Amino acid sequence: MQIKIDNSKKIPFNNNVDFCVGTGRMGLALQAEYLKQLDLVQKYIGFKHIRGHGLFCDDMAIYQKRTDRKTGEETIEYNYTYIDMVMDSYLERGLEPFLELGFMPYKMASGDQTIFYWKGNTTPPADYEEWKKLIQNLLRHLMSRYGADRVVTWPIEVWNEPNLPGFWYKADMDEYFKLFKESFYAVKAVDSRFRVGGPAVCGGTDEKWISAFMDFVSKEKIPVDFVTRHHYTTELPDPVGHYGYAELQSDEAGFANLKTTRDIIDSHEEYKGLQIHITEFNTSYIPNCPIHDTNQNAAYIAKQLSRLGDGNESYSYWTFGDIFEEQGVPFTPFHGGFGLVANGCIPKPTFWTFAFFKSLKEKSCTCVHRDDFSVIVKTDDCEYRGVLFNRVNHRGDTGTVNIELTFPVATENYSLITKRVDEETCNPLKLWHDMGEPANPSKAQVELLQMSAWPKLGSSLVSDGKVNISLPENAVVYFELKPCKLLSDRGYDFDKVMQYK
After folding, report:
1. Is the pLDDT of residue 226 over 80?
2. What are the Cα distances from residue 359, in Å, to 18, 341, 365?
3. From the centroid of its chain, how far is CA 43?
4. Beta bridge partners of 468
């Protein structure tokens, strides 16, 4: 494949790779390993927002209802001890929350239905007035602690996946719309600058729900600030033991499904162009799908990142790390968890996909090329950066793809730096397998796994503007090409050092 770069091109590319990342329930942020993984992610990627479940769940202990032993009188109390610890930890790491309002405190809930190992209550409030007071009291506390001008910039999403009966009792659409309306105006009553959106639906019935949601807010004249949805791209999993094995869907079908949301919103004139935030995306939607740990996942997600900004304001990967307990505590470090980082602080291949795309926006950049295998940008100081990828659904689909890039030559020499992630050079999953798949690797084994999880660096001097990069199946390669002058010390001859003839 030959690609000739034309500097005059300016190709639209909304690279919002670092806007938000997902996390398991917020209470997990009280664990040391969770914060170590978050530190690693922030050091090499640096997300701006973080979104997770469980803000109002009982492990966070915000909503308290006490009964006086003597009088029998009930008193509502709000406890912010843990939420302050969590928010402090996020803010110290450069993360602002993308607040998800949910799930229901047990003592406020209208029923006993729960979801996940940690039993998040997924029923409507028994008393909507108490629900609204809970939201308002929390927001006022956060504004008092962190400053109103800062907190009002935190996006707010009402609930999570109400189109699934497990996440919202009976997937009752009318009841969710009531929850949204009551929550929306409760937030706005605190400060009209807050931005509030929904309905945070997942696939399957997304078109039906988003269409009905837009009809509802239009009829009620609710000035919703943005629409949220989720995006997963595998077929139904095949359960085997602790795991669910899933086939990847066509990425084109996934992009087409996302466009339906844009079309539905734009069909309402008063909401045309309204922002869409994909508040969860990944390949599989289960936290025990082995594909998440693979180079195949890294290459597939690279294709997603190259196009998710087309029509969407942001897209939040679910999740940053594998401290995650929806189906219980995992048995092994490589268990198909959602995270970019495996337990033991081992970066998975997909971690580097995000780091590479973040590098495409570290300077003022203009996209000069984008296709099914690459995204290439040019900086204001004549440097080129790119991410190349060869994603396949099944081995043998494409084989190795060789890409020959030709750049306009402005100076005599350019320095080429590459970072390669493929199944031979950056594949901690294979090393773990070859170790015997230890469920609880020793410290020495963890160190080896960490060492195996870094990209292979390559370099060369380029004088003719031609760069050749090979992409085995499921490879992701990042490159930087920048003008370079040789400034050799007197008498220094690299060819003699290397004993070249």
Report:
1. yes
2. 10, 19, 10
3. 16
4. 404
